[in-house]
Amino acid sequence: MNTTRSADGTAIFFDRLGSGSPIVLVSGASCARGIHVPLAELLTAGHAVYNYDRRGRGDSGDTRPYAVEREIEDLAAVIEGAGGSAAVFGNSSGAVLALRAAAAGLPITGLALWEPPFQLDADAPARSRAYVTELTACLNEGRRGDAMALFLRSVGLPPNMIDQIRQAPMWASMETIAPTLAYDAAIMGDGRPPADLANVKTPTLVLTGSETGPWAPAAALALVDALPSAQHTILEGQDHNVSWDVLTPHLMSFLG
C-alpha cells in the first residue's frame, strides 16, 4: 500500500500493481478500493494499475469541508504519483468523477467509463433533490444505516433484499462508508450530464451492459453525442454488477 497527499493535505492511499502504462481505477458510491482488487489483478497483464481509496473510504483521509473539486485534486495526486499522466477507469458514479476530472483538464490519456448513472428524463432533477434531502437528514441525525438503505433503494434494490443485506456481516463496513454517499450525490449533481463535456478531449469509451435497463444506453448515447471523441460498447449479458473477466478485454483493447 502506498500513499500520496492531495492538494489540501488529505492522505490518499492506493495499491500499485504490475508494470507498464499506468491506469487509475475510480470506485463508485458505497465502495472502497476493495471492489476493484480482482480487476486490478487482471489489468496487470499490460499496465501499472493504481487502485486508490477515495477520500472518506478505506485507508484514505477525509478533510472537511467536502467539495467535488477536492476529489478531483485527489485523483490528480494519484495521477501525479503514477508519472504525471494516466488512463482512468471509472465505475458508476466513479465514472462521473473521472469525467468531471477530465473536463477540469487532468492529464488523462484515455477514459473508460462503466455505466455512468445519468438520468435523462424530465423528473430526474426532482428525484435527485428529494434523495439529497432525505440523505442529508439521515446523515445529520447519525442514521448511517438508514442512509445506506436509502441509497440501495434509490438504485433499485427491493426492500426484502435490503433487509437481508442489513443482516449480513458486510453491513457494518457499509455503514462506516455511508457519509461518502453525500459525496457521490454532489458529484452526480442534478442527475444529468454536466454542461462542460465539450472540454473533454480525451478518447473515451463508454461501456454498458445489455441487462442493466434502458437508462444506461440512453446515458451512454448522450455522452457519445456530447463528447468530442467517444464510443459506446455494449457488453451482452451484463448488468450494472459487471463481471471483471468480461470487462477486462474491452479495457485492454481500448487502452492498449
CATH fold topology of the largest domain = Rossmann fold
Count of extended strands = 8
Q: What portion of residues belong to β-strands? A: 15-25%
Secondary-structure element series = EEEHEHEHEHHHHHEHEH
Number of helices: 10
CATH architecture verdict of the largest domain: 3-Layer(aba) Sandwich
Highest-level CATH class of the largest domain: Alpha Beta
3D shape: globular
Spatial ordering of strands, largest sheet: 1-2-4-3-5-6-7-8
Rg over CA atoms, rounded to whole Å, is: 17 Å
Instruction: Output the structural class.
Output: alpha/beta
Unreliable segments of 5+ consecutive residues: none
N-C termini distance: 26 Å
Count of the domains: 2
Q: In percent, how helical is the residue content?
A: 40-55%
Name of the CATH superfamily of the largest domain? Alpha/Beta hydrolase fold, catalytic domain
Overall mean pLDDT? 97
Q: What profile does the largest beta sheet have?
A: 8 strands, mixed
Structural commentary:
This protein is α/β, with parallel strands linked by helices and 256 residues long. It folds into two domains: 2-118 and 194-255, Alpha/Beta hydrolase fold, catalytic domain (Rossmann fold, 3-Layer(aba) Sandwich); 124-185, no CATH class. The chain has helices at residues 37-43, 68-81, 93-103, 124-140, 144-154, 159-166, 171-177, 181-188, 215-226, 244-255; strands at residues 2-5, 11-17, 21-26, 47-52, 86-91, 108-114, 204-209, 230-235. Helix 1 packs across helix 10 (244-255) and helix 5 packs across helix 7. It is globular.
